[in-house]
Amino acid sequence: QVQVVESGGGEVQPGGSLRLNCVVSGGTFSRYVMGWFRQAPGKEREFAAAIGWSGSIVYYADSVKGRLTISRDNPKNTVHLQMDSLKPEDSAVYYCAAALTGVDIATLASADDYDYWGQGTQVTVSS
Asked: What pLDDT, on the 0 to 100 scale, is given for residue 28?
């Protein structure tokens, strides 16, 4: 059974930084494409970032490009999302997800592409 667990959320002032972590247990982590999505109150879940098997391929939503950085540590079954220059509109529940694709890609921006999900971690950007 695959489990996905996020951590690292919290409250930060505009312009600040947070680092989200996601640990996956079960399956072969190095063969999952990993993604981060977010959902603000009253809005649909939206794609933020994704990373391929080895970490050499990444893909970002335009709204976060240059401010969020996704990375992975395969020996530790962990994926990170470094969030810098945060804005109030970044406030949301952030979800980590794993996809069994069979190929090493990162352009998976639809929630339907992902097979396993975490419970989410809250990020609040407020002064």
From this structure: 94
